[in-house]
């Protein structure tokens, strides 16, 4: 009996050790027994990718990106082979492939490659022979046969792209939590699982710090309208659907609260207030590959102004170095760095049609005597930079204020 095709992705924590791999094998084969065709995407065991990066750093902190990809792609090659063996042991047919073998063709931007096309012949052939097809996540190959990787968390992208290409009936992303929550349950135990969320909200939440799925994979899912089912590998509970539009009985203004502690704030003091100065600073940073996020420039009363912006923690040193360089050239004052910050954000498509969300957010923070250092908004989110020590209080206050525990 042919019931349809499911693409299932299992993340590093669900294949962290022998028992978990065996557990995943059981889970996968239970679907096979029901008559489904299965393509299973796996990422590297546990923290393997981080460990490999550490290893490389010890040998050469400036390792070439091509060699990094050679190294990192091995993590997934281990897990697919082990999963295939575990499935064989249960008496089912399975075959594992690397990204290159299944023809995931990417561009040449090593460590963050983009998928150009997928040649699905090999997968289809495996399925036709009645095998469970296991694909190494996070990797591809260039037309020149160089192995590439798709950016951290890239196995999600492999799964979504395969689901799209194979016109799968379902794309299931398995994690160690029950789905997407209104906020991080480790911070706020009252956090609730969200039944369904839109691509836009998920994209916003992923980029603002919710660590459930790779943001790029959601972009692709949105572009090709691939519904995603995020669920736990440890239970049969319903999880969260990520889809185009969520029909709710009553309008929800805010769907989730996120926290990101991985940014630092840089302030350039006493910047001369004349055209072209901001351009100089940010052009320099862009050319050094530093991703700048929130930017705030104060009003100037004295023909001088302060410019503050945030960058990812990993870029801080680089950012400071080059900001100081430009600051010297344009004769501005000191460059200050503050790593003691956190970003709290509220996200929801409902805020497009509801005024007053910002006011409510600021009030909730004020009620807890939390000072706001920077603010930024998008159509469906509002973020505030606050002192790190207030992170948990802020998340809880916002979760409460927007009625998310109900
Ligand atoms: N193993 C890779 C990483 O840790 C890819 C993934 O987990 O999806 O980033
Ligand atoms: Mg991983």
Report on the architecture of this protein.
By secondary structure, the protein is of the alpha/beta class. Helix content is 34%, strand content 26%. The protein has eleven helices and 20 strands. The chain has helices at residues 18-33, 48-59, 65-89, 121-128, 155-165, 199-208, 215-224, 277-287, 316-329, 357-367, 391-401; strands spanning 5-10, 37-42, 94-97, 104-106, 115-118, 132-136, 139-141, 147-149, 170-175, 196-198, 228-232, 240-243, 256-260, 263-272, 292-297, 304-312, 335-338, 341-347, 374-378, 381-387. The strands form five sheets. Strands 3-6-2-1-9-11-12-10 form an eight-stranded mixed beta sheet, sandwiched between helices. It has a four-stranded antiparallel beta sheet with strand order 13-18-20-19, sandwiched between helices. The relative contact order is 0.10. The model has no long low-confidence stretch (mean pLDDT 94). Bound molecules: aspartic acid (ASP) and magnesium ion. The site of aspartic acid has 12 residues, from loops.
How do you describe this structure in short?
The protein is 34% helix and 26% strand.
Tell me roughly what share of residues is in helical segments.
25-40%
Major pleated sheet: 8 strands, mixed
Give the helix tally.
11
pLDDT under 50 segments (min length 5)? none
- Rounded to the nearest angstrom, the distance between the terminal CA atoms is 43 Å
Bound molecules: aspartic acid, magnesium ion
Estimated structural class? alpha/beta
Strand order of the largest sheet: 3-6-2-1-9-11-12-10
